[in-house]
Amino acid sequence: MADRSDRSTPRLGDMPSAEFREAAHRVAERVADYLERVESYPVLPAVQPGDVRAALPGEPPRGAEPFERILSDYASLVEPNITHWQHPGFLAYFPSVASGPGILGEWLSAGLNSNVMLWRNAPASTELEQVVVDWLRQMLGLPAGLDGMLTDTASVSSLLAFVAARHAVPGLDAREEGLAGRPTIGRLRAYASTEAHSSIDKGAIVTGVGCSGLRKIPVDAEFRMRPDELGRAIAEDRAAGWTPFLVVATLGTTSSTAIDPAGAIATICERERLWLHVDAAYAGAAAIVPEMRPLFAGWEHAQSIVFNPHKWMFTPFDASLLLFREAAAFRDAFSLVPEYLRTSVDADVRNYSEYGVQLGRRFRALKLWFEIRYFGVDGIAARIREHCRMAGVLAERIDADPDWERLAPTPFATLCFRHRPAGAAIAEAELDLRNAAILDAVNRTGRFFLSHTRLAGRYALRVSIGNPRATMAHVDGCWEALRDAAKAARP
Amino acid sequence: MADRSDRSTPRLGDMPSAEFREAAHRVAERVADYLERVESYPVLPAVQPGDVRAALPGEPPRGAEPFERILSDYASLVEPNITHWQHPGFLAYFPSVASGPGILGEWLSAGLNSNVMLWRNAPASTELEQVVVDWLRQMLGLPAGLDGMLTDTASVSSLLAFVAARHAVPGLDAREEGLAGRPTIGRLRAYASTEAHSSIDKGAIVTGVGCSGLRKIPVDAEFRMRPDELGRAIAEDRAAGWTPFLVVATLGTTSSTAIDPAGAIATICERERLWLHVDAAYAGAAAIVPEMRPLFAGWEHAQSIVFNPHKWMFTPFDASLLLFREAAAFRDAFSLVPEYLRTSVDADVRNYSEYGVQLGRRFRALKLWFEIRYFGVDGIAARIREHCRMAGVLAERIDADPDWERLAPTPFATLCFRHRPAGAAIAEAELDLRNAAILDAVNRTGRFFLSHTRLAGRYALRVSIGNPRATMAHVDGCWEALRDAAKAARP
Q: Is CATH 3.40.640.10 what the domain over B103-371 is classified as, yes or no?
C-alpha cells in the first residue's frame, strides 16, 4: 500500500495510478476469496437490527483514510453481516445470483462509467445493448420484430408498460392532459390476477390509475388467471363506464410460479383491443430451455414482456429486459429531447433515454455479453434445466412422504409445500404455526434460507433453486433440514 | 488461462474458482491500464452509427467461449468505441466520473450481489445505507431530521417526490382512487421554472398529472425562477379551479446552473401549503464546500431534495440521494408488503423498498462509504473547490477577451458562453451557426468534448469542469482549442 502520510493536507486528483492498481488486485483477491468460501458463512447472518449501524461513526470523516483500513472494515463489518444471496443455500424468494463472468463484466463497466443515455455519448454501449437485447429475444424463442431495452428492475419495466399502454388509449392524451383532463372518458382500468406481483399495483399507483383502477381477476385451483373471469370483468366494467386499457398476464407468479394462460388472455386482449403486458420476470429464463418453451405459448402476442436476467439467469443485479412490439409506443409516451441533448446523428441511431423514465442509464449490456458468451446459450439452458430437474426430485420426495404436501404445481424450480402429519386432524391455524416454526428452525441452521408465502389462505414453505453453484447435495441437505425441523416441531 | 477444451459438453456450475481468480486479476490490470491511459483515446470516438453492431454476430453463441477471447473483444471493440466519460477532456453535459475508491466499492458490491429490498435480506447493506445517507446530509450542511434513501437517478428521485406530493394532497386519495376518481377536485398542478430539467416533465407525464399539469414559471435575466410569477400563477390557477400541489425549485439548472431563490419559493410554498421539491442533482455537490453553502439558503425548508453523487461527487454511476422531511409520506404513498416479503423484524428496521418504485435495489452505499472515507469530506470539498476555481479562471479569460462573451453567470463550475467577434455586426442566426461550427471543430480534435445549449434563444457553448483528474492544463488546452476553432470559423 502506498504511503499515505503525505495526505494531511488534502491532495487533489483521483487515487494515484499505482495505488489503484495495487488496491484493485487486493479487491480481486477479496472477491475471489468470498466466492470460494461463501458457504462458510451462515446464509442469514446472526446480526441484530442496529448492530452494524452502532459500529459505524455517526459523522463522516473529515480527513482521508488509507484504503487498507477501509477494505479491512469492509471485511469485518460488511461481508459477514449481509444475507448471502450468492450462497447455494439461499433458496428464498427468487434466485438473484451473480456469476463470475457477469461480475467481471460489471467491473469493466464500472471502470468505463459509460452512461448510456444517447448514442453520441455511448456509441458502443448503445449498440451492444441493441445486440444483446436481440440475443435475449432469440434465446427466449420470441419472434423477430420484438424490440426492447434493458432497465434496472421489473418494477420499472412494468411501470414503463403501464405508461405506454395508457398513452395508447384512444381519445385520451394522458401525456399532455393527464388522467383528470377528460372527464368524458371513463376511468382507466387494468387487469391482473390476484396472484400478480406487487409491482403491478405500484404501476397503477404511480401512473395515477390508482389501486381501484387495477382489477384483480380470480385464479383457478392452480393459481392461474381465469380467462372467463377476465372476459366477464371487462364486459362488466365497460357497461359501468370504465375504460379498460391493459391486461397483465403473469407467467410464473411470485408466490407459486403459476402460469396464466397467455394464449387465451391474448385472444381476449385482441378482441377487446387491450394492451397485453407479460410479466415473466422470474420464469422467462425457462424459455431459454427449448423443451420448456411450450409453457409460454401465446406470450408472443403481447405488446410488452418483462424478463429479468438478474433473477434466474446469473446476471449481477441489476438487469431487466423489457421487450416491446412497437418501440414508437414507448418513444411517443416518454421522449423529451431538450436542446442540450440534441446531436447531429439523432435520426440514425437509438437514443435509449427516449424510451423510459431514466435519462442516465447504466451500461448493463456488457455483463450480459460476457455471460452469454462465457456460458453459451446451451450452457445457460443446461443450468436452468438442471435446476428444474433438482426441483422435480424434491417434489417427488415431498409427494412420496405422507407427512408432507405440495400446495401448488412446480412448473419451474420453485416449490411451495407444507408439513402436514399423516393421520392427524390438525386445524389449519395450527398447521400454519407449525410450518412457520419449521421455517424458522431451518433458517436458524445457517445452512439454508427459505422463505414462505400464503396460497389459498394456507401458510406455505417455499424453496426456489436457481444458483449455478447449487448441486443435489444442497437439495438433499435442505430436505433433511426440513424433516429434522418437522420432527422437532411436533408437539 | 485455464484449459477450456473440456467444455464442448456444457459443464454445470459457475466459472471455476481458480479461473475466476486469474480472470479477476486480468480485469483489474485492464481497468488500471484504462484509467492510466484514458487520455490516449479521443474523448469522442471516431465510430459511425452501426459500426459496432456490424462487427458483432447477430445470433448469440450456442457454445461456451473462453474468457480470454471475450476480454480481447472487449479491448478491441468496446473500450475504443465508447465516449470517455472518465477522460479529463470530457467537459460536456455534467461530469459523471467514477473515482478509484468508488470503482473498487462497486466491484465488491458486484461480488456480494446484495439486493437491498428488506433489512432481513440485506442487514449490513441497509444499515450502511442509513449511515451513508446521514453522512451525506451532514456533508451538505442540512439539518438533522431529514431522512432519505439512495435511488438510481434524479429522474427516479424526482418521480418519487411527485408521487409522495400527490399522495399528500388533502381530499384526494390518489393511491387508491387514481387521478380521475374525484371529479370534484380540480386538476393537479405542479410548478417549475422554464429552465427545469426534463425529468420534471417526465414526472408529470408518468404520474398522470400530464404536461399541461406542470406550469412553467418564467425566469429572470439570470435564468432563475421569478417568485413573483410563481405567486401570481398559483393564485391564477386556484381561481381557475386547479389544485396546486407541488413546486420544484432547481438549484443549478441543467443549461446554465442557475439557482432558483429557494428561500422566497419556500415562503410561498409554506403560505400556500405546497410540497417543495428541490432539484440540486448537479450543484448539490457544491454545498459540501462550506463557503459555497449560502448559495443554497432556503433549501432546508424543502419536503424533498435530490442530489446525485454520481454527477459531481466522483461516484460510479448510479447513485442519487433523495432526502425527505417525512419518511412516512413516502411510505404511505408506496408501501405494499405482500405476504412473501413479511419478516419478523419489520417493526424494528428500515425496509427501503417500501419507500419507492423499485422492489430490488442495488447496494449503492458501499461505493459511497469507500469514497467518502478515502478522500475525506475535506478532500471532496477541496476537489470541488478547485473545479470552481478553474471555472472562475476560464470565466475571467472569456470576460477579458472582447471576442467572447459569457451568456450566464457561473456560480459553480459550468460555463455558458459564445464567440462574438468584437466590432462586427453579426446577426444572431449567424452567431449561432458559427458557434455550432466552433463546437464541432473542438470536439473533432478528440482532446475535448463540449456540449451546447440555448439560453434566451442564443446558441451557447457549454463547459462543465468536474473530473478529479482535470487540471489547469486541461482548461488551458480547451481555451486554446476554442480560440483556434474561432479563428478558423471566421468567414
A: yes
